[in-house]
Amino acid sequence: MTAQAENFNNLPEIGTTAASTLTIEKEMEYGDAYMRMLRASMPVIGDPLLSEYVQDLGHRLVANADDVRTPFNFFLIRNREINAFAFFGGHVAIHSGLFLYAKNESELASVIAHEIAHVTQRHLARSMEDQAKKSPATMAAMIGSLMLAIASPEAGIAAIHATTAASAQGRINYTRSNEKEADRIGINTLAKSGFDVQAMPRFFGRLADQYRYASTPPAMLLTHPLPESRISDTRNRANQYPARRVETSERYQLARARIVARFASIDSEAALDWFNRQLKKANGKQKAALNYGKALVYIDSGKYQQAREILTPLLKAEPDNRFYIDAATDLDIYENKFDQAITRLENALKANPNHSVLRLNLANALQKAGRSAESIPVLTRYTYDNSDDSNGWYLLSQGYANIGRRDAELAARGELMALRGQWDKAIQHYIEASQLVDVNSLDQARYDARIDQLRTARARFANL
Asked: Are 74 and 58 in contact (CB under 8 A)?
């Protein structure tokens, strides 16, 4: 970093205390509660490969961020709107539309780095503290309206107007100060993580130019105002860092292709047309990812021969590529080649025995092959290691249903309900499970203990 850049980053902090409003522990509780509500109300993308990619990218940035006080969780929402938002407890949501709009991985990383800074600088808590000084609104009302505003800007802004009495100009000024601070800290995180810092002003500038006169700007511009002064500021800050040429990672290209193929809300013909147009101007590395995307479209539309013709050379060139292994496994299962799918995954797991995506795929393949009993130990370990992943609990419930273990099926479904904050349903599932097993058995003791835990969680959730 140049001396000028060092000086830029030594500017006085606006402040990160917010201690009089919320403790870190209370923020974590609110974040967990809101995450459960989002799972129940928004189209959260549960795709294991995409979840792994955004978690890895996010944690690469967190590893180079300052003032990290909470764990971080990064997740995708299926929405073509250009947006990302952060909330209490280190949760960062990324709309799938960002992958379609960002030109490269550094641009995507610049948005995530900005959101990480909102968390580390405790901007939500500080906003509440600022509003509490000016308004008699209850803390619960302010938290509710702020949470709503970051996820659903139009509804949230109306809620803020209804629950706070501060002037509109005061809110705008406070938001702009937060945005500039998040930009400054985000650019530094971007640089330390090895990304192109010019990506942030480039992305912001393109976004502002495209929607300057739009009657309905994207949600990102409602929650992240982009006046020209802010764009100029990020450009000036980025110019203090040495120029760096950064290659976009293969995983980013594959993740983007997967989103276009499966989560862009376009039909197969439109997706294939997009991939073919991109292939005409792509280089060698990009071509492999684009062809992978085409293969996914062919798989999902039942054109298995075309898919295999594309996947076979891709797998031959990169036999350990998990995106290709996943696609080939899907294809095997659709063609009822279950043993081939299982062997492929078992071989991959020999090199990566604890890899979560491969384990989940193996459990799914075993169930499709009619070998559900063998999937149970795989999924039991998986749900222990990944207790907040709905995929594992869903497959575990299916596995137990297939072998006739109704009590264990109900328990797994209870965990699914709990992940969505549907506490009454979760508790009822466990009560029914407890009634199905022998009195005073170890299973009954385990189910009853979980009922107590869920009732405690329900009460805490209600108090929030």
From this structure: yes
User: Quick check: 48 pLDDT over 90?
Assistant: yes
Mark which of 238, 267, 285 sits at the end of a domain: 238
Order of strands, sheet of 91-95, starting from the edge strand that comes earlier in the sequence: 44-45, 73-77, 91-95, 84-87
| 118 is known to lie in a ligand binding site | yes
Query: Model pTM?
Result: 0.86
* Under 8 Å between Cβ of 53 and 396: no
The answer to the question of whether 179 is labelled as a binding residue is yes
Residues 107 and 140 in one domain: yes
Bridge partner list, 93: 75, 85
Residue numbers annotated as active site: 115, 183
Asked if 106 and 199 touch (Cβ cutoff 8 Å), the reply is: yes
Give 17's pLDDT tier (boundaries 50, 70, 90).
Answer: very low
The residues facing 92 across adjacent strands are 74, 86
Alpha carbon distances (Å) from 171 to 161, 165, 201, 370, 416: 10, 10, 24, 58, 38
Joined together, the tokens standing for residue 150 give 């970051």
pLDDT at 81: 85
Q: What single string gives the DSSP state of each residue in 298-355?
A: HHHTT-HHHHHHHHHHHHHH-TT-HHHHHHHHHHHHHTT-HHHHHHHHHHHHHHSTT-
Are 87 and 147 in contact by the 8 Å Cβ rule? The answer is: yes
Q: Could you list the residue range(s) of the whole structural domain that residue 314 is in?
A: 249-335
CA torsion, points 316, 320, 324, 330, in degrees to nearest 10? 110
Residue 342 has pLDDT above 90, yes or no: yes
Cβ(162)–Cβ(145) below 8 Å: yes
Q: Considering its fold, how many domains does the chain have in total?
A: 2
* Domain assignment present for 433: no
Q: Are 298 and 310 in contact (CB under 8 A)?
A: yes
Give yes or no for a contact between 195 and 109, defined as CB atoms under 8 angstroms apart.
yes
Instruction: Name the residue type at position 137.
Output: A
Beta bridge partners of 44: 77
Residues 211 and 294 in one domain: no
Q: Backbone dihedral region of 66: left (phi > 0), alpha (psi from -120 to 50 degrees) or beta?
A: beta
Which of 208, 238, 268 corresponds to the end of one domain? 238
114 labelled as ligand-binding? yes
